[in-house]
Amino acid sequence: MGLCITNIRIFDGTPTPARAGSVRIEGERIAAIAYAPDTITPQADDTVFDGAGRTLMPGLIDCHVHLQLGSTVEAMGKPGNFPPEQLALTAAHAGRVLLDHGFTGAFSGGSSSAGAELAVKAAFDRGTLPGPRMVTSSMEKLPGGAPGLIFKFPARDTRPSDPAAVAAFVEEMAGMGLQTVKFLLNGVSAMDPGTNLTEQFHEDEIMAAGEAARRCGVELTAHCYTAASVKVAIRAGFRLIYHCNYSDAEALDMIEAAKDTLFVGLAPGIEEADHIRAPKFGVMASEGQVAEQANAVATKKAIGQELRRRGIRSLPGGDYGFPWNPIGLNARDLELFVEWFGYSPVETLHAATQLGGELMRMEIGQVKEGYLADLLLVSGDPTANISLLRDPANLAMIIKGGAFHKNTLTPAPVPAEVA
Ligand SMILES: [Zn+2]
């Protein structure tokens, strides 16, 4: 008993254009793909849908998801240190909104409660709550043992280095079952003005984090604005570095030298949001901050174009979850890859699918026989007009693990020769 979708164009996640074809899903996986002039012959008890020329593609993957920050396009909420029970409900809601918008994969960019992060991942995996596949993250680590979200960023020079405490934090997070550990190597100007350019950790602390991560089998991610933070994260073996605005020539060369193991998440979405929408929320609102953010946008554009030129695995995912940048706008990052970084829609979608699957280390992100059937059926052709993905009304089907999260089509009559 399978599911056949015929009369479709297939974008398979690789950097090749969409082609006419049909697909068959059995259980949670893609069982067969046929490209025109070949076609799939449904089996006797299959359910068959006529895709009517729509585009089938892998579900989208976002490399920088914060399910617990509190804001979606449906409900606004401030980030904060709420009880884990509340954060779990916040994350469950955000996960459903993300899936409704076609994101079947979420690589977490940091949580506030490890317990809530693990609980929602378990519920999404079991299918008891709707949400994407997840790679989980620790809370975003600040120096000095401060737990949770504390948006104050005293520079590292205000305290002595303590590599043992940083290594112990990695071990603790790994022991809780989290898959990645996130470090804020620079401050966050949107929360503490001017701190994007401050170093928060000593170099030996970050090297100790890298060693601890290798020992414990977890991976490290980092919030990096300065060239120095990019370099130390790469030296310490981090798997994913975010933002990277002020990378210098040496940092770019190091990124390129590490490109077989490293991923970059430039997060253009938050850059645009901090510039355009945050001031309306009283954030990044002073004249100096508006100027700082205009500069951050300009540097981000240049870095994004340079990473594309160098063939770096640069992935969409824009730090959505803040009130001025709510979850549900995630596909805006895809447009920004085209508008700011010069990617073609196909290159952008390849980054948001196949490369996202590589980051998550799962058999997702491609329309490929044997892969998990995490798929979207899009009305129209997103490889020609990527903006179609901004509007969930264009998602005729959202399939996760072979099961419908959304389906707007009615099955076609089973062909006579099969019945
Ligand atoms: Zn973030």
Notable characteristics:
419 residues, alpha/beta, TIM Barrel, 2 domains, 8-stranded mixed sheet, 16 strands
Quick synopsis:
Helix content is 31%, strand content 21%. It is α/β, with parallel strands linked by helices and 419 residues long. The model has no long low-confidence stretch (mean pLDDT 94).
Tell me about this structure.
- It holds the Pfam family Amidohydro_1.
- This is Amidohydrolase family protein.
- InterPro entries: Amidohydro-rel, Metal-dep_hydrolase_composite, Metal_Hydrolase, Metallo-dep_Hydrolase.
- Residues 55-402 form the Amidohydrolase-related domain.
- A hairpin with an 8-residue loop joins strand 1 (2-10) and strand 2.
- Helix content is 31%, strand content 21%.
- With 419 residues, the chain is an alpha/beta fold.
- The chain folds into 2 domains: 2-58 and 364-407, Roll (Urease, subunit C, domain 1), CATH 2.30.40; 60-330, TIM Barrel, CATH 3.20.20.
- The chain has helices at residues 84-100, 114-126, 163-175, 203-216, 227-235, 249-257, 268-276, 287-309, 332-339, 345-360, and strands spanning 2-10, 19-26, 29-35, 47-50, 55-58, 60-65, 103-108, 133-135, 137-141, 180-184, 219-226, 240-246, 263-265, 375-378, 395-400, 403-407.
- The mean pLDDT is 94.
- The protein is globular, with a radius of gyration of 21 Å.
- Strands 1, 2, 3, 4, 5, 14, 15 and 16 form an 8-stranded mixed beta sheet that branches. A 5-stranded parallel beta sheet has the order 9-10-11-12-13. Strands 6-7-8 form a 3-stranded parallel beta sheet.
- The two termini are 13 Å apart.
- The protein is built from 10 helices and 16 strands.
- The chain binds zinc ion.
- Zinc ion binds at residues 64, 66, 109-110, 319.
